[in-house]
Amino acid sequence: MGVIVSQLQRFLGLSNAQLPDAQRPWYVFDLSDEVNWIDQLRGHGFVVIRGVASDAQVQTAKDLLWDAIGERHNNVIRDDPETWDFPGLNPAGLVPWLAQSAGAWAVRGWPGVKHAFARLWDTENLIVSMDCALIWRPWWLKSKWRPITEGLHLDQNPWGKPDLECYQGMVPLLPVTDASGGLQVVPDSHLDEAKAEFKLSHPHLRRCGDWCMCDDDDLNQKALLLHAEPGDLILWDGRTVHGGRVGTGLCNKVDLARLAVTVSMTPRAWASDHVLQRREEGFRKGENFNHVPHEAGTSSGTVRAPSRRNFQPPTLTAEQLALL
């Protein structure tokens, strides 16, 4: 049914938000539909939550991220792709130096994002991840811009971290389609029986640390690209196999192919005093951490941005500051 809906969606040119309820992708729910989106997340390991941000909030975040890019690379002109050959993007499009930008913090401070995580953890006293932003340039305009993703992987080793550590999240600021590509997940791969089978078939990953590459043919065949709209919140269980998928590139638009901010929240009580101190220091220095807020970037596989001389952190609102 999901394939049929996706085909109808592409044929009619409809977004998730415009589709009738019965024709949305089966994993897309409204923020207000808490019972069903929580059941989807916990039952299948992922969900797309619609409507966590307004169009104005999305536009502001995009503008601020482009401002940060222009400040770092003053030859970049937002409306001129010929100027988009700026350095600082790794092949997968991870941009750690945007972690402490005003644009990334704008997304973290959206009330809808916090509401979702507060509902999951049953507390408003949360801290937020300060992870990478994601940028893919339109490789259909220049083939050298084609991203190379990290492939399917786990950020939580099933031997060392068998229980739920966090719900990972991502907010796309541009549509996620078959043409653009985006996040793919393996449904139900967070379940105990799936993890038991995974450990039997991947014994070599036992001591590889938190980041486990698992780009197997059988997992690739099961992987599902999650279609989403700007301002949606994509959530997945930290034990779910996931990764980036490059799209078809069959697109005529002159815009970035992908622009997203990763965001995760966990209870403040889970973080030690040392971690809370490191988070404040990293914010002031422009450092990035990873997707687990209460670990302060100690997980293996973390892509690092070095401290920047004379870095000036953004001014946070009271709501954003509470998440730091």
Describe the 3D structure.
The protein is α+β, with helices and mostly antiparallel strands and 324 residues long. It has a single domain, classed as q2cbj1_9rhob like domain (Jelly Rolls, Sandwich), CATH 2.60.120. It is 29% helix and 16% strand. The chain is built from nine helices and 14 strands. The chain has helices spanning 2-12, 34-44, 55-72, 102-108, 111-121, 192-201, 217-222, 273-285, 318-323, and strands spanning 28-30, 46-50, 94-95, 126-128, 133-136, 153-154, 167-172, 181-185, 212-213, 224-225, 233-237, 242-246, 258-262, 265-267. The strands form four sheets. A seven-stranded mixed β-sheet has the order 1-2-11-7-13-5-3, with helices on one face. A three-stranded antiparallel β-sheet has the order 10-8-12, with no helix packed on it. It has a two-stranded antiparallel sheet with strand order 4-14. Helix 2 (34-44) links the parallel strand 1 and strand 2 (46-50). Helix 3 runs antiparallel to helix 4 (102-108). The longest helix has 18 residues, at 55-72. Residues 1-15 have low confidence and may be disordered.
Q: How do the helices and strands follow one another from N- to C-terminus?
A: HEHEHEHHEEEEEHEHEEEEEHH
* Main sheet overview: 7 strands, mixed
Q: Approximately how much beta-strand content do the residues carry?
A: 15-25%
Q: For the terminal residues, how far apart are their CA atoms?
A: 42 Å
Category by helix and strand content: alpha+beta
Give the quaternary arrangement of the chains.
single chain
Q: What is the arithmetic mean of pLDDT? A: 90
Shape: globular
Identify the strand order in the major beta sheet. Answer: 1-2-11-7-13-5-3
- Give the name of the CATH superfamily: q2cbj1_9rhob like domain
